[in-house]
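Summary for the steering committee. One of the milestones for this cycle was to obtain a three-dimensional model of the protein with zinc ion bound, which we needed before selecting residues for the alanine scan. The sequence and ligand used are listed below.
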Amino acid sequence: MEIIQCPICKRTDATQKQCPEGRDSSKVHCPNCSTYEISGTAFVTQSNKSQNTRLSFAIRERTTNGKEYVKINSENYKQLTEGIDYPITIKEKAELVLKIVFKDEKAFIHGFDLNDTNRVISNIESADEMAKVIRLMDGKEWFDMTRDSKGGTLLSVIGKGKEYAGSILFPTLNSDQIFVAMSLNEELAGVYEEGIKKALDECRLTPCRIERREFNAEITSKILDGITKSRFLIADFTGHILQ
Ligand SMILES: [Zn+2]
């Protein structure tokens, strides 16, 4: 394993490992882009280009969210960068920085350095855009910010930032809806009315129970929607036959 500069985002602490003989490619692990395989030709071409924010963002999205093993060659740039949900507005980019720093345990202890090579994590495409993102974050008071001599900004999440990150990462945290999954058998009506519903009423929470008995595509989407909007779910397995 060799320490290299990531050909895509230009971070200097990426590592590279040659793929087995006969394959003109290597496996790169980069803290920004995650892990990907890249052909020799694509490696050289990318190394000669400036920071490729879009491709870096696309690789990370594909690898971490889609669990896809990304192989870059000199022809598949378009294919790899299409169909990705990029943050576009300054607010979306700032929110993404907040989510990343909030979820990163190390950043909590040491702070997070939003420097030129780290800007690709949020699809921040220029120095001008970076300045706008920082200005917005500063106005929102999400971070305690300090500038270092190299032009980087060290971010530590503070009160308002923690609160806002919680609300965007766990939007149902303050929902008063609770999804109830249980058999609709009449014999269990009392369990629901006198037990579950009563307890929820006392806690000022609203049960969400799908009443219809026939299952079809429409009911499945209603169930999924109900679960997505609920803070948590109560499941009673009575009458559930294991297959
Ligand atoms: Zn990289």
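Key point for the committee: Residues 6, 8-9, 11, 14, 30, 32-33, 56 surround zinc ion (CB under 6 Å).
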